[in-house]
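Notebook entry, structure prediction.
Reason for the run: the old model in the group folder had no record of what sequence produced it. Starting over properly, with the input documented here first.
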Amino acid sequence: MFDSLLIANRGEIACRIIRTARRMGLRTIAVYSEADRDACHVRLADRAVCIGTAPARDSYLRTDRILEAARLAGAEAIHPGYGFLSEQPDLVKGCTENGLIWVGPHLEAIVSMGAKIEAGKIAREAGVPCIPGYAGDNQGDEALVAAAHEIGLPVMVKASAGGGGKGMRAVFEEIDLLPSIRAARTEAARSFGDDRLLIEKLVRNPRHIEVQLLGDRHGNLIHLYERDCSVQRNHQKILEEAPAPGLPEATRKALFEAALSLGQKICYDSTGTVEFILDAATGDFFFLEMNTRLQVEHTVTEEITGLDLVEQQLRVAAGEVLSLSQDQIRCSGHAIEARLTAEDASKEFQPQTGTVLHWRAPEGVRCDSGIETGSIIGSSYDSMLAKLIARGGNREEALKKLAGGLERLEVAGIGTTRLFLRDAIRSDRFGKGAVTTDFLRQEWGEGWKKPEENTLVYASLARHLQPKASTLPWQTLSGFRLLEAAGRPAQTVYAAAEDPGNRISLERGGGGFIVRCGEEAETLAADWLEPGTLRVMRGGVEETIAVLVNGQDVHLTGPHFDAVHRVAQLGDCRADLQTKSGAAPDRIAATMPGLIVEVRANEGTEVAAGDTLIVMESMKLLMELKAAASGTVSAVRTAPGETVDAGALLVQLSLHAEERV
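New structure, fully documented this time:
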């Protein structure tokens, strides 16, 4: 076994490889871009080398810089992880030329499976069922259109060198055929440097099933059972599980035989995955592609077999013989993986960037993560943050564990797909194991929506109960009320900055708080269970909510919601207080020095007594300045963002006749 390993990747897969390598006693070397200088994988490794600026093309995709980093750090082997250079022949050649061990299959295997056209030919030679289609040398528009007509619509247009859904177009109508071919060709050339296309018969609503292979350099090859990866968005996998639910035993056996036949054909000698699509209506399956690398979803295979696939890769690369034969591999229990990404699923999976202000992985499930509190999520790389994997004695148990893990996961500062994933695995269709690649459209035809809950209540409670460093009365949020009229009950009103009209009133009473929102009122109790965890008793049910107060923002993570509110406390500057301070009814003046937050009056506006005209902030309190009488706004003397002195005229009114004294 070699002694040192360079991981030519980043994020969760780099961290995952480093942990196994360290357990095996290997010295680990990370590479990083300037954007990843403080990333988890950099600090986890024994040594690290900067390989360029943030764009992947200037760092993680630079073979020359990876090889130079290996030379500088004294690496003996390189593990590519997945993505980036994991299936690039140039890096394999570079390892050979520089005396480095490549942790992956031999070069010819990568090349043979690297383009779908060539891979399909080899699969047919190996007797593997393939989708009817065209993969000819004539790549002109006319030839491809004619092939599609011969196959019959609908068809799938695919980039030969494609992956990850790039260069793929499903075509159902004749009018879309030629534009789809041209668009796929352009995307293929831009993404892979290879504009060749193939046309295949579109299998409607299929399942995506794949078989994990493991081979060594002594001619041994085994399968490690199958996975179902049917839940996808734009051909990107979201949920994966092993074994595939509801698969007939005869079909499962045929899949294993087909995958092994292809692997033996190319003398496969590492971890790899043969992917198939299975017609849910007929049960027929067809070869899709072979990934000559570790897969994102390898974790569920590890959970049902008890094997560490990264360790197996490293041992095979070092020349060891497989330690297990096929009849020694057992499938035990069921495992499901959810890919957590920095995306807003309620807005068509819009990517999210920012700083992770809080991160806590849940207990009871495996979490492969490349982030922690303080991690910066930029736009230069993939949006995946972590993978949550649950194993159970059966599928139902695994589902419950994963749903619970997603509900207990705490992340603040950046939007994620946490609740979307929870809803997906709790759907009836997924629960029955009856999902296909069309799952998202069938389940949420108009898009997934966030669960609705008035989370401003929790944010207001958190702000109200937030411990203060000082016990001076003007720095507390309960009991003493600045500007509160004597004899009135202590009551605090909070508002969300994003919607000032959305307000929560808190008043001590009923053994807790009387909470009012509009016309609705309820009594609940709340306190801090521990720093960062709010305990709320509501309707006889107690629940805990993860809370992070960051400046004026209150971040909330609960079992059924993720939310952030910029919560402000509203001071109650009433008209009678203004009058007592010397302000005239036709003048709205600042009662104390402060910052103008909002102006709700325009010249010529008709106002009534009690209307809020100005919202200002002073001593960390928001105060509403109201009209003492009805009239017309004759002048506005301030603007949002302006700092004013006590007594400064803010709004001048022209009072109605009946209001004049």
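Summary: The first strand starts at residue 4 and ends at 7.
The old model has been moved to the deprecated folder.
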